Amino acid sequence: MSLVAAAALIPFGAPEAAAPMVKTQAPGFYRMMLGDFEITVLNDGTVGLPADKLLTNVTPAKVSASLKRAFLGLPVETSVNGFLVNTGEKLVLIDTGAASLFGPTLGNIVGNLKAAGYQPEQVDEIYITHVHPDHVGGLMAGDKLAFPNAIVRADKRDADFWLSQAMMDKAPKENQEFFKDAQISLNPWVAAGRFKPFDGDTDLVPGIRAVAAPGHTPGHTTYQIESKGQKLMLLGDTLHVASVQFPDPSVTILFDTDSKAAMAQRKKIFAAAAKGGYWIGAAHVPFPGIGHVRSEGAGYAWVPVNYSAGH
Questions:
Q1: CB–CB of 285/242 below 8 Å?
Q2: Tens digits of per-residue pLDDT, 193-233?
């Protein structure tokens, strides 16, 4: 058979062997400008949250219905976000993710920081919203300080609570791991003289202010960032499940140290953000976790940031 005849037997446009699936996501960073400040959201990864079992002051049926309206199921794949703020004078990281403390799906803050064009050595200051493992775990890289030139700051009430052996001993056994993880993550910074707690509302560097918001933990803190008349409030764990707690901010979570105080803070913060129309960013709102809040009925609606290519 001639080559021409053989070629005629091959189906036109027959595909070659299929390319293997990659099955990984793009680097998790998102950049925006806030006045003269550069904001880079860093995704630490996601973790499955059994929201029907963890959310309180609500029925599991209502949780499931709210998730269904958002085309979500259980467990809810929940983002863990950190926020890198370059003021032009200081490079500030707000929350550090979980590192290895919550399993293999998290621990990407440093990798995404590098993908975003920065190095851990460049971080000047680290501000912690609260001393839970998914916010302080990334302070350490094994037995080394993950950000070797930084200082760490958090409200003294949170440090006093989570670093206390006496408080850990009094805590229910199922909660003691939170204390152990906090101490593993933060005590090396204390020992190195690199932890500098603050007391409530505090101006930290020009343009960044700590605002006390206790409830989720005793020293839970939000951070107000302002430049050239633009404002971003970083809410930490003011909420955990956007599709449930924006429509109904009275929904609380088992992780709250004081659920009534946490609920009051959430209602106050949502109302102020809706009235003020400024940006908010949250640790557990789907990446990149930045957007606006508007009033809707008896609750609120979340309006995510419109994607920008950064022109």
A1: yes
A2: 999 999 999 999 999 999 999 999 999 999 999 999 999 99
pTM for this predicted structure: 0.93
pLDDT at 250: 98
Rounded Cα distance between 5 and 10, Å, is 9
* Per-residue model confidence as pLDDT tens digits over 100-110: 998 899 999 99
Q: What's domain 27-304's superfamily in CATH?
A: Ribonuclease Z/Hydroxyacylglutathione hydrolase-like (3.60.15.10)
Strands (E) in 16-114, as ranges, are 29-34, 37-49, 55-56, 76-86, 91-94
CA distances from 76 to 21, 146, 234, 237 (A): 24, 29, 22, 16
Spans of all domains in the chain:
27-304
Phi and psi at residue 80, to the nearest 5°: -125, 110
Other Cβ atoms less than 10 A from the Cβ of 42: the count is 31
